């Protein structure tokens, strides 16, 4: 099998047995199935495809068969790279969520962005502990905008439910 370009961009970030890559054509239905498993109220396929096309999609795939088992969607707004969706369909225990967040963070650094943001819309102690281990801190939306005065944290209403006053950020 011929190697595809860019396959090593996120080498070393995924746990054993997995790899991280960008979404490839024809994967929308597989990613929607993963999202529906994680969140049963997922959108219909046409709406989901529009979502995929408006974001950069990081795919966690099995090395054994290449099939997607998780994904993260991110979108640049000003100096912030927003991680807006993070769905995984793997057995518990593998640090696959952390690996996807590491890939998103690496890509943000490549773009020269100042921070990665995650809407803090769900009170989940396990995610909070993981985010803290990964170097994220919670800040208010106002604090984020104050720290990025020349480019307000624009796009927040477009990338997630940010009615919550808190956001997880990792300063790069």
From TrEMBL:
<dbReference type="GO" id="GO:0016747">
    <property type="term" value="F:acyltransferase activity, transferring groups other than amino-acyl groups"/>
</dbReference>
<feature type="domain" description="N-acetyltransferase">
    <location>
        <begin position="18"/>
        <end position="155"/>
    </location>
</feature>
<dbReference type="InterPro" id="IPR000182">
    <property type="entry name" value="GNAT_dom"/>
</dbReference>
<protein>
    <recommendedName>
        <fullName>N-acetyltransferase domain-containing protein</fullName>
    </recommendedName>
</protein>
<dbReference type="InterPro" id="IPR016181">
    <property type="entry name" value="Acyl_CoA_acyltransferase"/>
</dbReference>
């Amino acid at each position: 099998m011929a190697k595809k370009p860019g396959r090593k961009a996120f080498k070393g970030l995924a746990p054993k047995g997995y790899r991280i890559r960008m979404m490839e054509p024809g994967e929308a239905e597989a990613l929607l199935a993963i999202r529906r498993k994680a969140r049963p109220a997922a959108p219909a396929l046409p709406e989901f495809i529009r979502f995929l096309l408006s974001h950069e999609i990081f795919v966690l795939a099995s090395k054994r068969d290449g099939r997607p088992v998780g994904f993260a969607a991110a979108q640049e707004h000003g100096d912030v790279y927003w991680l807006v969706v993070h769905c995984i369909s793997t057995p518990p225990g593998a640090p696959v969520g952390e690996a996807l967040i590491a890939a998103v963070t690496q890509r943000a650094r490549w773009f020269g962005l100042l921070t990665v943001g995650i809407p803090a819309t769900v009170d989940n102690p396990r995610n909070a502990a993981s985010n803290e281990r990964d170097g994220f801190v919670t800040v208010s939306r106002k604090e984020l905008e104050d720290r990025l005065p020349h480019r307000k944290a624009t796009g927040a209403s477009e990338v997630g439910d940010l009615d919550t006053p808190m956001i997880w950020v990792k300063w790069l």
